[in-house]
Structure formats: structure tokens, C-alpha cells
Amino acid sequence: MNGIEMFGIHWKNPVTTAAGTFNAKESPKYYNPELLGAITTKGVSPIPWRGNPLPRIAETPSGMLNAVGLENPGVDAYIEQELPELKQRGMVVIANVAGHEIEEYCAVVRKLDKTDVDILELNVSCPNLKEGGLAFGVDPKAVHLVTSAAKQHTKKPIIVKLSPNVTNIVEIAKAAVAAGADGISLINTLVGMRIDLNTGKPILANGTGGLSGPAIRPIAIRMVYEVAHAVDVPIIGMGGIMTGEDAYEFLLAGATAVAVGTAALIDPAAPVRIVQELEEAVRKYGDPRK
Amino acid sequence: MKKRERAQILENIKIGGGIQRIRLHAPEIADTAKPGQFVNLYLPQKQFLLPRPFGVADADGQAITLYYMVVGQGTELLSEKKSGHFLDILGPNGNGYDLSAMGEHILLASGGTGIPSLLFAARRLRELIQKSDSSAKKITAVTGFRDTAFLVEEISKYCDQTFVISETDGTQSKPLGMTGNILNLFFALEAGSVKASGLDKITGCLSCGPMPMLRAMDQWCGDKGIALQVCLEARMGCGMGACVGCTCETTVGKKKICVDGPVFDAKEVCWV
């Protein structure tokens, strides 16, 4: 499949990684990241976050729950240690931005604005500590506020990554676009839980976790479809993409590009395999954008 | 590049105590695997996404040996796979024990399913001793189990002395016959109820088992100034360093158990 243009940036193909599933040190042992359209890096916060206690992972039918809690070394370490090598290798880099308050998002955006990162992705699924811990992404007003605030601190394109844990995804997407979002990515994980039969307690130390993997793909397809018909900005579709045909389905739903997440945790080379399989799917089924 | 690959099952049998032994034809992994490293095993049923990480118990020429406890649907399905069938595997993963500078008398202390990686360590240490390629002269194994003991006969082939203790079944415990954990066993041995030759002269220790046991080992070894390497167990996601599902606190910051470990110098681990 030919490359794409997004915000005037050329991607050699429409495949990127989903935030939190690409590790700049480990993932390149399994595939050449330069072969992807873009690399989306793990969420970074203004200061290092310790994340949640273990266990953080539980398996579910055709999926997994994670409650990592966005453990990350902070934006300064990201800018010093991770970003330079990715950019030196000529990759398009999308930095995923996390925060617990609007000012925390802005602090990260301000620092990333001074780097050569290409695109920023706001993770609005984080708990909004000033609003009792409810995720920003479930309230159109909060999404509008965080997006417009972030836009004031950078000229770089901003993608807002939507939470699927809402009644009306279109309303949230419209709020993001009205606030100046240059693109939309969706879906983040769905909130879920598993309970240990022996202890009677949740398996995850955090109680709940985010469900990902092929189990959530039909929900993701439906939401991408709805949002693509309601807003006029590029969409990165994701949610349980395991094969090139899965990716192709997202393009049919209206996504401009796709992100591979959980698949790369199961088969570390999945992102590049999916690039190849997507080419085959396009040959087989035709250009999805026509 | 490293990759997930298909491996033929050479053997997959019950050895008792709810434990299965699986041998896989995997020449490249067998060639490089070190004691303390682990292998990701993927189930053929696609609804089970996550790999099962198992410590390498032996690597010999073309094949690797793993042991696993049948505890859930995944391991149940795994136990039904027959020899001749194929499984996807990835490895060897993680760092492994440092067998080089352990001094003259090495203690191997295991709890439950921690024994396989120490079985591999025992074999390699014995090879080093036979080749006079190590400062090591003597190996003592102390193995603890909740109920039924397993792999004791195997590990004792490579050890000068082997002690067993079960928490629930004293008939499994040899030679003392008492119930308890391995710390109870150490205290009994130190109190002199059994002549454990040279237990007071241990110079280095490798340990693998549940966290509370490893923490207790850290204390026991720390009090005596014995260098201790611990192999941590954790519920992992990817098992290859991408998902950040299995980190631990260390004195030098957060570490990933799957790629920075699973073996750590016990002095570095911040016990929770």
C-alpha cells in the first residue's frame, strides 16, 4: 500500500504502533521500526510516574487487561534518551502525552514543542484528579478544555486519543475537533475486571484494568465508523488489530491510518507483518479509500 | 533478529505433583539458553493471547526442557498437547544467573515451581566443577514445596547434599520429616538436628521461588554476608520488555523483571 500524508507529514505506510506497546530498546530486536509509517511512543508525564502495584496484567478471552498505570520515566528522560535515536533514524514519531491535570498535559506539551517530535497524541483516558478521578475522556467539556489548552502550547499537530468508555463517542470526538484537535485516534482500552476464583478478589492489584486485543475490535470498528462520519479530521484506528485484514477493516470504517498494540505484545514482529499483510489485503480487496 | 518461532514437542508428560515436563526441539534456544533464563510458550488456541513464561530447566544440544504446573485453563490445554505437535515459543528471555563468582560452597534454595531454573543451574555448576573451571567445590540444594515434592531426584544428581521440606506433608520432607518452609528447615539444621556439612560455610546462593520466600532468603543470607542472586517470579504480559507489566523497584530505579531480570542481586531488590 502506498504511503499517506497526515498533517503534511509523509508516512511510508498507514501503520503505527499503539502507545505503550513499542519499547525503543527491546522492540527493534524483533523488527526494524523504520519499516512502519510512524512510531507512537509510550505515554509520558511531566515527572516520572511509578505506575500501579503488581499484578498489572490479566488474560481474558481473546484479550488482556492491563493496569500498568502509565509507569514512565517522565518527559525529560524521554526527550534525552528515547526520542533522539528514533529521530536520527528518520522515523515519524508520535509522542503520547499523559497527565492528571490540564496543567500537567500542558507541561509535557511545552517541552515536546521544543523537540523534533512530529505529532503529539493526548491520552485523555487518564483520571482527572481535580474532578474526582473521572477520566477526562468521558466528558466532552473536559476533552475540550484539555485539547484547547494543549493547542496553546504548540504548533505541532495534536491528535486526541479517545476513551471508548462513553455513551456517545461522536459527541466526544466533536468536542475535541471543536477545540482544535488536528486528528483523532481511537479506541483506547475498555475498563474491565477479572476476579480470582480462589481469593474472591480482583486479579489486578488496581482492581480494574483496560481491556485490549481482538475481543474489542468490533467495538473499535463501530466507533471509528461513527466518528469518521461525524468529523472531518484524519483518524488513526486501533483496537485488536492482529492481521492486515483487520487493519484493512479499519480503513474501510474510515480510518486514515491504523495502530497495532496488543498484537505486538503477543508476536513482537506483528507491526511489520501487518504492513505486509495490509498490502496483500489491498491487492485482494482494492483501495479501501475509494 | 529474535522472533516467535515454531517448535516441535518431543515429550509432554505428567511427572507427578500436578507437574508436567515438556521437551521442545529448539536448537537455537538450546544453544544459548542459560540457567535463570525463561522461554515464552504460546498456546495454539487463539483466545489465549498471552505467552506462558517458564524457566529453562535444561538445554542440551537440540532440545530444551521446561516444567510447568497445571493451574488453569491455559496450562490444562498445554498439558493435552502431544509429542509431534508444534507450539510457538520465544526465547531465551531475560538475563540468567551469574555462575562465575559464587565461592566454594554454593547453596541452591528453591520454593515450589522455582526449582526448574535451579536444576539447570545445578547441572551447569557441576559441569564447571568437573572441569575445574570454577572456584566452586560443593553444591547444596534446599528445596521447599507446599505439598508434594518434585525434581528432587533430578537436582540431587548434581548436588553434594539435598534437603527437602513440605509445608503440609512431612513424609515428603527429607531427611528431617518436619513440615514448614525452607527457613524453618535452615533453623532446624543450624540447631543441629541434622549434621548439614558445611552449612555454615556457604559462600554464595541462588534462589528462585515466591516473593516472601526470596525476601526471607535475602534476610538469612544478608545476616551471614552470603552473596545472593534471586530469580523473581511475576505475572507477565509480553515477556519481552514492551508492556511494562512486570516491573520491580530496585536501589537503582525501576527494572523490568522480564528483560532486566528475572535474576537480580538481592541487595538491589526493594522488597514490598
Overview of the molecule:
With 290 residues, chain A is α/β, with parallel strands linked by helices. Chain A has a single domain, classed as TIM Barrel (Alpha-Beta Barrel). Chain A has eight helices and 14 strands. In chain A, the strands form three sheets. Chain A has an eight-stranded parallel sheet. In chain A, strands 5-6-12-11 form a four-stranded antiparallel sheet, with no helix packed on it. In chain A, helix 3 packs parallel to helix 4 (169-178) and helix 5 (217-228) runs parallel beside helix 6 (244-253). The two termini of chain A are 13 Å apart. The model of chain A has no long low-confidence stretch (mean pLDDT 96). Chain B is an alpha/beta fold. In chain B, strands 1-2-5-4-3-6 form a six-stranded antiparallel barrel. In chain B, strands 9-8-7-10-11-14 form a six-stranded mixed sheet, with helices on both faces. Chain B is globular and about 55 Å long. Chain B starts with a strand and ends in a 7-residue tail after the last strand. The chains are: A alpha/beta (290), B alpha/beta (272). The interface between A and B is medium-sized, with 36 and 30 residues.
A few lines on this structure:
The complex is a heterodimer of chains A (290) and B (272). Chain A is an alpha/beta fold and 290 residues long.
